Amino acid sequence: MAPDDTRAAEQKKILNRLRRAQGQLTAVIAAVEGGGNCRDVVTQLAAVSSALDKAGFVIVSTAMRDCIENPDDENSLTVPELEKLFLTLA
Q1: In whole numbers, what is the pLDDT of the chain averaged over residues?
Q2: Three-state SS at 61
Q3: Cα 28-37-27 angle, rounded to 5 deg
Q4: What pTM did the predictor assign?
Q5: Within a 13 Å sphere around the CA of 3, how many CA atoms are in the beta-carbon half?
Q6: What's the mean pLDDT in 7-33?
Q7: End-to-end CA gap in the chain
């Protein structure tokens, strides 16, 4: 797969995760507004959090790969910058 195709596929995965999280968050909001069951609300909220975390890790791992493959790119991040991004998700 060409680099641009790989990047497009990764971006599609990220967007799908974010859209899924958006849908789950909409369900959480509706459940809270409707006085939903606490257990169901918390379970759905945990799913939102997990989806966002996974999307964040994919974004950071993609940035890491890009920096390794293209270290001279003007948008390339330094190792400390990547570490800071990664730890932001922890």
Answers
A1: 86
A2: helix
A3: 15
A4: 0.73
A5: 5
A6: 91
A7: 31
Residue in the block written with tokens 């967007």: 15
**Model confidence at 1, in pLDDT bands (50, 70, 90)?**
low
89 DSSP assignment: T
Token pair of 10, please?
Answer: 């990764």
> What pLDDT, on the 0 to 100 scale, is given for residue 75?
75
Residue 86, classified by CB atoms within 10 Å of its CB into exposed (0-12), middle (13-18) or buried (19+), is middle
Taken in order 19, 20, 23, 25, is the CA torsion positive or negative? negative
Q: Crossing angle of helices 79-88/38-69, nearest 10°?
A: 170
Token reading at 68: 């390794």
